[in-house]
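haha ok so turns out i had the wrong file open the whole time. this is the CORRECT one, sorry everyone. sequence first:
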Amino acid sequence: MPAPIGLWQELTAAAAGDAFLWAGTAIFLGAVVHAFLTPKFAQAAQRVGSTSPRRAALLHLLGEVEAVFGIWAFILFAALSCWPGKGWVFACRYVESGDYAGTAPAGPSQFIEPIFVFVIMVMAASRPVMGLAAGWLGVVARWFGGSARAQWFVLLTLAPLLGSLITEPAAMTIAAMLLSARFYSLKPPDRLAYATLALLFVNISVGGALTHFAAPPIVMVAAKWGWGLKEVFGQFGVASLLAIAISNLSYGWFFRRELAALVASSRGEDENEAAPLWVTAVHLIFMVWTVVMLSGHHLGWMLGGFLAFLAFTVATSKWQGALSLRGPMLVGFFLAGLVVLGGVQGWWISPILGRLDTLTLMGVSTLLTSFNDNAAVTYLASQVADLARPGAEGLRHAVMAGALAGGGLTVIANAPNPAGQSILARWFQGGVSPLRLLLWALWPTLVAMGCFLLLK
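then structure:
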């Protein structure tokens, strides 16, 4: 029996016949570094804004974290188009289908998830849906006294759990908009602002793990690994609930003085006129339609439903506000770029995941998730033969637990995170610092990992 080859030998062998794999990974790493440097570009844009408007505009573009992966996706496309043996036709086919090897049968567009996130964000941010969510969460907050601290705790506990029903991007949109209006508008201290953002990202990532159809990393593998509602909730549901509760209670206690100081300013919100129940019900039906079309990969029907939704908002303009399009478009662009760049990374991610034990696999999955969308990590894991065998339940649980727990470490770790940042970035001077977000996300991430390990 031949001795197993080492990781480096396996990687070099995989790339021996295609040198572009190294180039594709280098471009991806360039995008990751750029994403961490966006606050620096934003600060530079402010410094030169009055002296050089053109340079400031370029720096502002480079400082938009949602634009980073889209920009580098164009660089990847250009490199593919010019690379010997690839060319324009190959590059176009890869971008459209995500099939780098050129062997997979034709299937749905790889951009269906970015388009879904755009559509569901627009719907979730509509006035009737926001009014329903705000009213429901407000009632619960009033049960706990209605203070800023109560609203902070309720929004960070219950809103993420909506991700298991209406999908994580929709839950992120609702939670971020309500936090912006009810918490960040009170101008909390800087460290509490970052801790809250970190909690939001981690809680959204694990809060979608109560069902098998709402969290992107679970959707990617549920069918292949035979996971239904019972299996997903049994493995991750109770642990997710406990992780959210422990993280919120611990940070709530740590910032008890800062939260208490905000109580006096937490009243008097400007509420819009509530939409009729039938209007809100139609909006929810459109959201359900969008989720169902995503599950069946029916991109055309999804877009058709979105056009019908737009027509309905025009017909019921009396109860509608201006639709938010800029944030969803930027987030969709971000995810589309991530999909394009991530499709060339399987050659090194799969060998790493395929040779690890359970505990190490969980840690590596968490680490990989921090700089590559967790849905991409679990999808690549589903291609590893050792994880698909009947006796590998522990390994499958480990890779999913790591992907869910690590979904709040960075903006690019979970698909809904850019949506939250686009809504809340204006409350952070000079933009959100990736390092400070990472540091405040470490504790809830470790809590989630511990809960997943103990309650699997």
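The chain has two domains: 18-100, 113-454.
again sry for the mixup
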